[in-house]
């Protein structure tokens, strides 16, 4: 059986931490995402492979089984049972099996009866799906109805889901064989941002225009937040590029009720155009006054 090295797929060491795995997966998911590689079968194949690798290595229990049994990790329990059954009852003889023996032992179990004439039961295959949402969709907790294996399942997705994030839905993968448990469903979220805000985790970033007079003399400016508008005071002498922070006006934090990031606003000073003759005279007078003429 060919062995797929999940660690090589994600370009990480076998000793990689959970954070290392998550970082590597996100980088590759962005690179090979179907939306960025339309009609590219190789990229689509690679995207599915790294999804599977991440689903296994980011789950401590699955990762342990994979490290022990490689591609046969899904049948680790059957392997252990088979190894026990292959042991001789004699006190003087015993057989030892390692990971390389697993395929041969496991192959002898398919289609055969065991012990009391019962067929082996096996866990169903895990499934991977992609769900495309708008950034506005994940600002609030919502429910979605998905059709999986011909069945409709209604799922609740907490606010704050990030682009590339994967959620496991236990028991909604392919059916098991001979009474074995179902596999799991892994949903990868593709979040499209059509707003004026840039999102970085729980924080949001945007620009706001300030007219020249408010920037010089001080005043107020109305700015957009993700859920409405607010008025801010502009200090006299505000420079272009000045940044202000609105605490708690960012994006909701995943699975943390009523916790939000911050909104960072950069002021862009808007210069007046189409000046009247009188306005030009006043600006000229101001310039001369400033220069001491």
Secondary-structure topology with pairs:
Layout: H1 6-9, H2 18-32, H3 41-57, H4 60-69, H5 76-85, H6 102-107, E1 113-114, E2 118-119, E3 127-134, E4 142-148, E5 151-157, E6 166-169, E7 185-192, E8 198-200, E9 203-211, H7 212-217, E10 219-225, E11 228-234, E12 243-246, E13 263-270, H8 277-290
Parallel strand pairs: 3-7, 9-13
Antiparallel strand pairs: 1-2, 4-5, 6-7, 8-9, 10-11, 12-13
Helix pairs in contact: 2-3
How far the N terminus sits from the C terminus, by CA atoms, comes to: 89 Å
Task: Give the SSE string.
Answer: HHHHHHEEEEEEEEEHEEEEH
Q: Strands of the largest sheet, in order across it?
A: 8-9-13-12
CATH class descriptor of the domain at 198-290:
Mainly Beta
CATH architecture type of the domain at 198-290: Sandwich
Structure description:
The protein is of the alpha+beta class and 293 residues long. Among the domains are: 121-194, HSP40/DNAj peptide-binding domain (Sandwich), CATH 2.60.260; 198-290, Urease metallochaperone UreE, N-terminal domain (HSP40/DNAj peptide-binding domain). The protein is 28% helix and 26% strand. It has helices spanning 6-9, 18-32, 41-57, 60-69, 76-85, 102-107, 212-217, 277-290; strands at residues 113-114, 118-119, 127-134, 142-148, 151-157, 166-169, 185-192, 198-200, 203-211, 219-225, 228-234, 243-246, 263-270. Strands 8-9-13-12 form a 4-stranded mixed beta sheet. It has a 3-stranded mixed beta sheet with strand order 3-7-6.
């Amino acid at each position: 059986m060919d062995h797929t090295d999940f660690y090589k797929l994600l370009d990480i060491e076998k000793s990689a931490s959970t954070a290392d795995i998550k970082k590597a997966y996100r980088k590759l998911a962005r690179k090979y995402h179907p939306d960025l590689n339309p009609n590219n079968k190789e990229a689509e194949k690679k995207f599915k492979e790294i999804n599977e690798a991440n689903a296994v290595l980011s789950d401590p229990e699955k990762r342990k089984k994979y490290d022990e049994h490689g591609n046969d990790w899904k049948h680790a329990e059957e392997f252990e049972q088979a190894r026990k059954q292959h042991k001789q009852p004699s006190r003087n003889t015993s057989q030892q099996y390692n990971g390389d023996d697993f395929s041969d032992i496991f192959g002898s179990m398919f289609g055969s009866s065991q012990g009391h004439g019962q067929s082996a039961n096996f866990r169903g295959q895990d499934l991977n799906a992609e769900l495309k949402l708008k950034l506005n969709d994940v600002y609030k907790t919502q429910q979605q109805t998905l059709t999986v294996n011909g069945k409709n399942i209604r799922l609740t997705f907490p606010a704050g889901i990030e682009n590339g994030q994967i959620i496991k839905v236990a028991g909604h993968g392919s059916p098991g064989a001979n009474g074995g448990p179902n596999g799991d469903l892994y949903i990868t979220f593709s979040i499209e941002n059509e707003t004026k805000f840039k999102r970085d985790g729980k924080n949001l970033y945007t620009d706001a225009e300030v007219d020249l007079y408010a920037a010089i003399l001080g005043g107020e400016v109305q700015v957009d937040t993700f859920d409405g508008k607010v008025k801010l005071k502009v200090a006299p002498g505000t420079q272009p590029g000045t940044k202000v922070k609105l605490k708690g006006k960012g994006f909701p934090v995943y699975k943390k009720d009523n916790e939000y990031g911050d909104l960072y606003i950069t002021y862009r000073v808007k210069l007046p155009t189409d000046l009247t003759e009188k306005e030009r005279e006043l600006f000229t007078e101001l310039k001369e006054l400033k220069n001491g003429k």
